[in-house]
Amino acid sequence: MGFEFIQRAQKFFVLALTSLTMLVGCRSTSPLVLAYHPFAGYAPAYLAQSLELWPTKWIESRLTTSSSQSAKLLRTGQADAALLTLDEVLRLVASGVALRVVLVVDQSLGADVVLARAPLVELAELRNRRIGYEPGTVSELLARELLDAAGLTPSDAYQVPFRLDQQEAAWRRGEVDFLVTFHPVSARLRRQGAVVVFDSRKTPQLILDVLAVREQALHSKRAALSALIEGWFRGLERVQRYEEDTRWRLTPWLGLTPEEVYAGFDGLKLFDVAENRAWLQTEGGARLSQRAHMLADWMKQHELLASPAVPELACDDFLPPPRLVR
Amino acid sequence: MGRFWLILLLVLAPWQGQGQERLRLGILAYRPLPQEVARWAPLEQYLEEALPGMDVALYVLDLPELDAAVRQHQLDAILTNPGHYLLLQRRHGLGRALATLVRWEQGMALREFGGVAFARAERQDLNSWSDLQGKTIAYASRESLGSYQLQAYELVRRGINQQAIRGIAVGRPYDRVVEAVLSGRAEVGFVRSGVLEAMAREGRIDLSQVRVIAKQNLGAYPLAVSTALYPEWPLAAMAGLDAKFALRLGLALYAMEERAPAVAKAMGIAGFTLPADYTPVEEMLKALGLPPFVPEPISWEAVIQQYRWQLLAAGLAFLFLAILLGRTRWLQSRLEKALARERAHLREIAVLARTFDTRQGVIITDPQRRIQRVNEAFTQITGYTEEEAIGKKPTELLHSGLHDLAFYRAMWRALKESGSWAGEIWNRRKDGSIYPEYLTVSAVRDDNGELCHYVGVFSDLSEIKAAEARIRELVFYDPLTELANRRLAFDHLQQALAESARTQELGALCFIDLDNFKEINDTKGHSMGDACLKTVANRMRSVLRQTDTLARLGGDEFLVILERLGVHSRQAARQAEQVARKLLAIIGAPLNLEGETYHLTASVGIVLFDGRTGQAEALLKQADIAMYAAKTSGRANVRFFDAGMEEALKERAEIERALKQAIAREELCLFCQPQVNGQGSIVGAELLLRWQHPTRGLLNPGAFLPIAEETSLILDLGVWVSAQAQQLLIAWAEDERLKTITLSFNVSAKQLRQTAFLETMRSFLSQHSRLAARLEVEITESLVLDDIELAETVLGEWARLGAMLALDDFGTGYSSLSYLGRLPFHTLKIDKSFTQRLHEDTKIADIVRAIVGLGKALRLRVVAEGVESEEQCQALRALGCDCFQGYFFARPMPVSEFVARVRAGAWLSA
After folding, report:
1. What is the pairing mode between strands B136-139 and B188-192?
2. Which phi-psi region, left, alpha or beta, contains residue A179 (left: φ > 0; alpha: ψ -120 to 50)?
3. Closest alpha carbon to B442 in B432, B427, B429, B457
4. Residue A2: which pLDDT band, with cuts at 50, 70 and 90?
5. Whole-number Å distance between alpha carbons of B774 and B317
6. Sheet of B188-192, strand order
7. Do A244 and B217 touch (CB under 8 A)?
8. N- or C-end of chain B: fewer Cβ atoms within 10 A?
9. What integer pLDDT is reported at residue B419 of this predicted model?
10. What value does the mean pLDDT take over residues B38-54?
């Protein structure tokens, strides 16, 4: 009798395993949703999507209009991953969203700018003027830095919140005197005469773009994540070496002319695989973590974050193995 | 044909003019040749103007022609597609690109182009690259960048093999591809970007007729494109071209957009710009393995040489895996076999499990005899549950204590030697009851011959034993009365005979027959008869000793075997008769059956037996005869088979009866026999009892004393005798002649236990202490030996009170001398047998001398009895005897006569 039981148990086990496999299979067929808004730094993702550099049935690009929209999708779980700035990631983590950074995309070295209608003689002219920016984003950081640099406090200027997609219209209507924004909006507004009075080159430690992934997806969509990152670096290669295609391909997404597209990369330092490894390798404390702690402290100081405590964010599990790097 | 034209052109052209610098520019044609020639004609003119003193010749050629011209170094610069450019650069010494063409399309300057995949508009099913799998596709040729390679790369990139499509190479110009698709020869066509739009412009097709597959979203890019964009055609100089000249050419080209925009636009271009990076094209060609990036054929030798260690490692790994696989398969087959065996075992075990579940108790122990398993029957038989039993040793639970150590040793020895033991064994249940079981123990050994278990299988024999007992009962017992049946009775009789022969003791066989049973049986029915028999049986059983056998022979016949009735036949007969009388009495007691009272009677026939009597069968017959005699003598009677025996019994009974009355009737009387000393003077007298029987005359004690001894009459007699003796002593004390005579009388053993007698003796002795010394009590050796303690107590008291003690008949019994020291005897009487045989045997004299010597040593008076002659008297005197008694001196005489004779001076001392 005991023996029959074992046979039956085996059958059951096989059946259970099959069901489990099917279940896992079903889960893996729901694609990994990646949210990102138009920004030159995020171009590799757009290119990978457009050129099918990654398996599009595994990865779905959710093109948003602003980083706050991406953050929202990530927070609500509508997106598994999003391209955001580190400060946005910190805010999300502080609000209880379990996130890991699997990719450090770029560092802003001038891509984020403060635009004015005319050149300033000194930054103190900001006093009692209207500064527009998208709250909760990196622009807020830059705005604070700007005020810091001007020796002003937030109450010394009018801060007007605008989402990224509202900014150009607001500018045209003259609703703000200063606008904290970045490429490609900055490029388009500069076409209309805006001048840069302050940019992220002055705050090299502050602005880092990263790919943040929900902790759950980290486990349930490993294959898709690996494919995403592999595709990302192919996209990055396209940016760097396939200018003819790239400059045309990005135009509809960035809203620029082919000639303007590459200007957007000027203020950015895009990181390759090796540099990512340096950022994310957790052995002996990831460089990213140091940066995150530093940023958290800064944000706490500026009352943009309640607590400077930051969990471990870095995760280098999905970077391509070194031998595959050409 | 084209080749012919070219060669002709090259030969005839006046380019080798003196001092005149020449520029031979080859241009690839991808549209119909005349159209292309016409299109590029302004370029020749522009360059001649832009490069003064330069003889510019423009050759618009298709791909093979252009190839050939380059190989033969008949051109100085070439404008061709990037793929072709890369090929020529690698293979035929084409130099670096000087400029990249910028086309003018729909009002835009384009320095990049792509490939187009298209189908007829109605093919709604063709939307993406993956939809092209297995489709018929028209293209110019596989060497064509814009009309095959760009598209093939997209397919390959998506995992669609070049062999997965059905290709139709339709040749140049590209218009043929469009025609092939529109005509339906092919489902899909590959052309470079701009072709469809140009043909539409030329009115040769309607764009609504076609559908661009996988159309890329490139914003403001004016042309439909299905692939990525690549840099436009390069204009490259041959490697040998003078650098200065190349620079001039380049500058001229760059300046075109500024200086001659109209000329440029007429050619459908915006002009030329700085040379692009053609890496993307290179990558694409590499990915497709196309010239000039065709992978070199790899020789096996080279591969082996290069990867020998890896190959060796792989080979070893493969070998290892093969061995592993082989071993796995081998193990698998072994496992399967083992599994099959296991299944067979399991089936066997299932069968065994059934066997295990039997009514027989099963115990399985480990080699240390600790119980590992028991079955349900074990619990039922022993009362111990499995939980209680496991871990214990069987002996701990079941040891009955009925078998000694040797039994168990023998069991384990048998197990050790032969591997099994079987036999009956008594064990103890949990409730303490002992039961028999038939146990088979086997030692079980494993494959290695190591002892692994003992298996004990046992069955409870209690029921079997009970059944056996029942059978025995049926065989040996009468089921109605539960008495032994004829068979068992016969068996017992034989045993009794054997026992009798051994002990010399007699036994009796009593045959009992109910006199009036038949009446009851006939009138009241058999069940009443049965009840009657049962009652009778129970009654008889109640009066018999445990050792007696009571049996029912059948019908109303019973048998009683009485054993150990003593060595004397008379005594035995008497006892047997007594038992028979008791049986008759108990049978005769009123019997109440269903309200009616019956009086049963029975007849008993008795035969005595001893070891010599003979066969049981004969005895039974004799008893039956005796019974019959009893029955004929008037029922309710007892008869002996031996008539003499019966007579003797009768006489005895008569004597007994008469003796009872003798005292009252004063039939008893006392005689005296004098005892004289060596000088013939009287010193004492022995009182002797006589019975004056009314019919038989004067009887000596031998005729009635044994009977009196057997009954309590002896006590009455004793009391009477002692009372007479006391009276005589009191009377004699007044007489001078008589007062010195010691009067002795005999006391029996029974009297010593008679309180009344002891009391009279005590009172007499204490009241007449004067007379005590004249009173002598004669006792026999056997009396003393019967109960030495009692004798000591009583006789000691008497002696203290002054009485004399004499030991009678010395020398006839055991003559144990030890008591002589313990009891205060005064007199030792030598038995008359010694006296009478004194002259027959000299040894007797020695014995007598010894007795006398003993008496003297103990300071006892020694009296010789039975002296009948002078010789005897002389001899005894010579042997040292003091006193004498016997006929020689006087016969026993009535007391009155004795007194008279003493008074008359008889036996006076000399």
Report:
1. parallel
2. beta
3. B457
4. very low
5. 138
6. B166-169, B136-139, B188-192, B115-120, B210-213
7. no
8. N
9. 85
10. 89
Residue A325: pLDDT band with limits 50, 70, 90? very low
At A214, phi and psi to the nearest 5?
-65, 140
pLDDT tens per residue across span B630-658: 887 777 888 888 767 677 777 777 888 88
Assign B4 a pLDDT band (cuts: 50, 70, 90).
very low
Interface test with B, best of A244, A247, A253 (most B CBs within 10 A): A244
CA distance B741 to B682: 7
The string of DSSP codes covering B89-103 is: HHHH-EEEEEEEEEE
> Which CATH number is B170's domain given?
3.40.190.10
Cβ contact, residue pair B229, A245, below 8 Å: yes
B372 and B223 part of one domain: no
- Give the CA distances from residue A118 to residues A122, A146, A200, A202, A203, in Å, rounded to whole numbers and listed in that order: 12, 16, 19, 20, 22
B347 falls within a domain: no
Shortest distance, CA B342 to any CA of chain A (angstroms): 10
At residue B625, the pLDDT reads 84
Asked if residue A168 and residue A301 are part of one domain, the reply reads no
- Host domain of residue B93: 2-108+235-288
Contact A81, A35 (CB under 8 A): yes
Q: What is the pLDDT of residue A24?
A: 47
Contacts of B342 in chain A (CB under 8 A): 3
In a domain? residue B158: yes
Q: Which of A142, A176, A202 represents a domain boundary (last residue)?
A: A202
Number of domains in chain A: 3
Tally the C-alpha atoms within 13 A of residue B144's C-alpha that lie toward its C-beta: 29
Q: Write the pLDDT tens digit of every residue in B73-112.
A: 889 999 999 999 998 888 888 888 999 999 998 889 999 9
Q: What digits encode the pLDDT tens for the residues A163-181?
A: 888 899 999 998 899 999 9
Q: Which residue of A has its CA nearest to B340?
A: A3
**A65 and A99 co-located in one domain:** yes
**Residue B613: pLDDT band by 50, 70, 90 thresholds?**
low
Give CA–CA dist A297/A291, Å, rounded.
10
pTM equals 0.53
* Domain match, A88 and A236 both: yes
Among residues B466, B489, B517, the one where a domain terminates is B466
B128: nearest CA partner in chain A = A52
User: Do residues B29 and B65 make contact, with C-beta atoms less than 8 angstroms apart?
Assistant: no
Percent of chain B at pLDDT > 90 equals 26
Nearest to B839 by CA among B881, B872, B805, B803: B872
Domain containing A13: what range?
A: 1-30
Please check whether residues A148 and A23 belong to one and the same domain.
Answer: no
Give the DSSP H/E element, type plus range, for residue A270.
Answer: strand A268-270
Using CA coordinates, name the residue in chain B closest to A248: B218
pLDDT exceeds cutoff 80 at A230: yes
Whether residues B210 and B239 share a domain: the answer is no
Asked if residue B131 is part of any domain, the answer here is yes
The pLDDT of A216-230, averaged and rounded, is 92
For strand B136-139 and strand B557-562, is the pairing parallel, antiparallel, or unpaired? unpaired
| Binary contact (B276, A244; C-beta < 8 A) | yes
Give B8's pLDDT tier (boundaries 50, 70, 90): very low
C-alpha angle B141-B9-B26 in degrees, rounded to nearest 5: 50
Indicate which of B193, B216, B229, B345 best probes the interface with A, i.e. most A CBs within 10 Å of its own CB.
B229
Q: Tell me how crowded residue B326 is: count the other CB atoms within 10 A of its CB.
A: 10
Host H or E run for residue A9: helix A2-29
Two structure tokens written together for B672: 């005296």
Residues B493 and B453 grouped into a single domain = no
How many structural domains comprise chain B? 5
Compute the count of residue pairs across chains A and B with CB atoms less than 8 Å apart: 51
